[in-house]
Design brief:
Helices cover 70% and strands 3% of the residues. It has 188 residues and is mainly alpha-helical. The radius of gyration is 20 Å and the shape is elongated.
Length: 188
């Protein structure tokens, strides 16, 4: 088993930060929906846990977007030297080279480049609102609903970005860098 350093960072970005964020988001949506449905009645312990949970989710969302933007994305956009025919080291050019996959770049990567930023922004708003209002959030029905909807927006934009990322990485992965070997094949 081997993985390159670029493949490892792509894995950390998508399956580490991104997938963990999506899993955490589904639990937060359920908890926020329960609070909204019960007109804000919840115990203080649940509120305290949810407040820190939302903060951790905002951190995961930021780690996912920042690692994708500043670590993985430059490898995706690598420029091939003139005369290069094998585009496997240049994922963006590989996607653009075929009419069947150019849409993956024009729609999928555009989503990932721009719309995916809604996730950390929305989760930061949700966490900041919980920290700012604290116990008084129970008396703010519209604010509770806004926190729920911003969490849903964060989940939806991250889910679409993650789906596009998985499809793009399947066809045009970011490869290269140091190779890490986890096991050796037996010689016969």
């Amino acid at each position: 088993m081997e993985i390159t350093s670029r493949g490892l960072w792509t894995l950390i970005h998508g399956m580490g930060f991104g997938a963990l964020f999506l899993l955490a988001c589904s639990a937060a949506i359920y908890q926020l929906w329960s609070i909204c449905r019960s007109n804000g009645t919840s115990d203080d312990h649940t509120d305290a846990v949810l407040k820190w949970y939302l903060l951790a989710m905002a951190l995961l969302a930021w780690l996912s977007v920042l690692s994708g933007t500043y670590i993985v994305y430059p490898w995706y956009r690598a420029v091939a030297p003139a005369g290069t025919h094998d585009l496997t080291m240049y994922p963006q050019l590989l996607l653009k080279s075929s009419p069947t996959t150019i849409g993956w770049h024009t729609l999928g990567m555009e989503w990932k480049e721009h719309v995916a930023w809604l996730s950390p922004i929305a989760m930061t708003m949700a966490a900041a609102t919980f920290f700012h209002y604290g116990r008084d959030l129970k008396n703010q029905r519209y604010l509770r609903s806004a926190v729920l909807w911003f969490t849903i927006v964060a989940f939806a934009s991250a889910a679409v970005a993650g789906t596009w990322g998985a499809m793009i990485n399947k066809y045009a992965p970011t490869v290269g860098g140091h190779v890490y070997s986890f096991s050796q094949a037996e010689a016969k």
